[in-house]
Write a structure and sequence with these properties.
about 250 residues; Helicase, Ruva Protein, domain 3; tRNA processing (chains A, B); alpha/beta; tRNA (cytidine/uridine-2'-O-)-methyltransferase TrmJ (chains A, B); homodimer; 7-stranded parallel sheet; Alpha/beta_knot_MTases (chains A, B); Alpha/beta knot; methyltransferase activity (chains A, B); 10 helices
Chain lengths: ~250, ~250
């Protein structure tokens, strides 16, 4: 996470102190702490502090700059956020590629993401001071992305990238594969479960081996998707034992 | 983008109308329009409308539900957002994998992302009604993600995924989820299966509601990973009916 410490979030000419506070909060949730303000209309302001909701350390540490150049002083990479296409502007990058590039360069020095005014965005002059331009892909029919929300999206991508990057391997990733809380069931444990299930279904009159109707393939298809754990197989077989031994005791409320 | 139209954003017990408005705005920028509110503390409210900033059509179309089950009625997939790890909760997914799964399933029916109260999050009971749980990876030192910001992150990921996945080609496949051979079971069909399973286990003496020992959460965790189809629910309930009515006829070879 050292790399995130080298990332500056620059807000150029923000109008509303609430958005400055929301940006600080958005940053801090993602482990990004360096906010720089270029000519904010109202700052400091109690509305900013209220919206920061505990991220007021980020606000307090935020220098107020007189120009974008001042805010970008010492950086080795600056990327502009813009809702508009610009003729002859810097090269466009996707959000994800931008996050990746920012973190890569943050290994070597300070980098900046530059956000414009809520209404006007960034001036062409400001955009030209950045090496790349990023557009968050909003719905063309309603592209009114809140400033704090835009900062949230970028900082989220930075953190995602920082977490998924480098050594980590798959550890936290691979989401769809459920981390085992019990060891995975072995092939033979699962097969014994299927045999048990089949026996119980036959005894209950639900399954006729002479007219199987693809019942077992259907159940295998179902449980085959699960990656059963050993504990789960034990529970399922426990249920089978119980229902097999005990006739329904009370039909009335069923 | 048709798939985004099948996505429901469910806010369960939101306290602050401003966050409802921010969520609506966040959704609309990403082309997601279906907001559902479960027992909002204050709604409708002028603060919500103000923060929605032009996304008031999303607010106006948002139904107010009395329970999470009502909000999830008819869905084939529900995913809970949670800042906390839960013992024996649903299987975890990364944000990105969740977005991918949501869009994949949205080809086939309605899907829901469920967000909890600003302070308390989702109740365990609510979480249990979802098939997966997603944690937005915040900085452990400050994880105070604003509700609207969390909605923004998820909707952003949905849109990113929808844009990048354009041609798709794989439909409902994508390896882990088996293509449907029968329509996916709806939320209420699956809930009826759980209720049926619970009844049968109680009658069989396997489950003691007074000493539940987390049996139902374990079974929900198991079947939650499967993406049950309607035919499969019917088979499972058929088995339950059969074993419930018919005592084991022959113990000897077991």
């Amino acid at each position: 996470m050292q790399r995130l410490a080298n990332v500056r979030i620059v807000l150029s000419n923000p109008s509303h102190p609430g958005n400055i506070g929301a940006a600080a909060r958005a940053m801090k949730t993602m482990g990004v702490a360096r906010l720089m303000l270029v000519n904010p209309e109202r700052f400091p302001d109690p509305v900013a502090t209220a919206r920061a909701a505990g991220a007021d350390d980020v606000l307090q540490a935020a220098p107020i700059c007189q120009s974008l150049d001042e805010a970008l002083h010492g950086t080795i990479l600056a990327i502009a956020l813009s809702a508009r296409q610009r003729d002859l502007g810097p090269a466009p990058l996707s959000v994800r590629d931008a996050a990746s590039l920012v973190l890569e360069q943050a290994e070597c020095g300070d980098v900046a993401l530059v956000f414009g005014n809520e209404t006007r965005g960034l001036s062409n002059e400001d955009v030209q001071r950045c090496r790349y331009i990023v557009h968050i892909p909003t719905d063309p029919a309603y592209s009114s992305l809140n400033l704090g929300a835009a900062v949230q999206v970028l900082c989220y991508e930075l953190r995602q990238n920082a977490l998924s990057g480098a050594p980590l391997g798959q550890e936290c990733t691979a989401g769809r594969v459920t981390p085992f809380s019990s060891p995975p069931a072995t092939h033979e444990e699962v097969e014994r479960f299927y045999a048990h299930l089949r026996d119980v279904m036959i005894r209950a009159g639900f399954h006729d081996p002479l007219h199987p109707k693809r019942l077992m393939p259907k159940l295998r298809r179902l449980f085959g998707r699960v990656a059963l754990e050993r504990d789960e197989v034990n529970i399922l077989r426990g249920i089978l034992d119980a229902v097999d031994k005990n006739p329904g005791l009370d039909r009335s409320n069923h």
